[in-house]
Design a protein that fits this description.
This protein has 113 residues and is an alpha+beta fold. The chain has a single domain, classed as Roll (SH3 type barrels). It is 13% helix and 33% strand. It is built from two helices and seven strands. The protein has a seven-stranded mixed beta sheet with strand order 5-6-1-2-3-4-7, with no helix packed on it. It is globular and about 45 Å long. The protein starts with a helix and ends in a 7-residue tail after the last strand. It comes from Kribbella speibonae.
Length: 113
């Protein structure tokens, strides 16, 4: 599976309730050392937006001009972070998570690294 295959895919919780769409993935560079002398990337989790699986520009983290942030949040709705280990199944139709929507942290609460 390619990362592009995940983008736009619907995310549902264990009860079948729609959480939103995959807008982005969070990668961490802590994998095994590659011949290029850099560590490999791995998927840490998915960024899920409530209303539209659209391109993110950084304003979903509550940074930038207030009016622009307001417009982005109005369009996206809640932006949540789904840790990779919480994913139960990935099918052609949706990504299913083990935990309910209420257990997913808002992206703005996630540390940046």
């Amino acid at each position: 599976m390619r990362l592009n295959d995940l983008l736009g895919r619907r995310v549902v919780d264990r009860d079948g309730d729609d959480i939103g769409g995959v807008a982005d993935v969070r990668l961490v560079q802590d994998g095994p050392l590659l011949p290029s002398m850099q560590s490999a990337l791995r998927i840490d989790g998915l960024i899920v937006v409530e209303h539209h699986a659209t391109r993110l520009f950084g304003y979903e983290r509550h940074v930038g001009p207030a009016l622009l942030r307001w417009l982005v949040h109005r369009r996206l709705g809640e932006v949540r972070y789904l840790p990779w280990q919480e994913i139960e199944q990935i099918s052609d139709q949706a990504v299913t998570t083990r935990s309910p929507r209420t257990d997913l942290k808002p992206l703005r609460e996630m540390p940046r690294y």
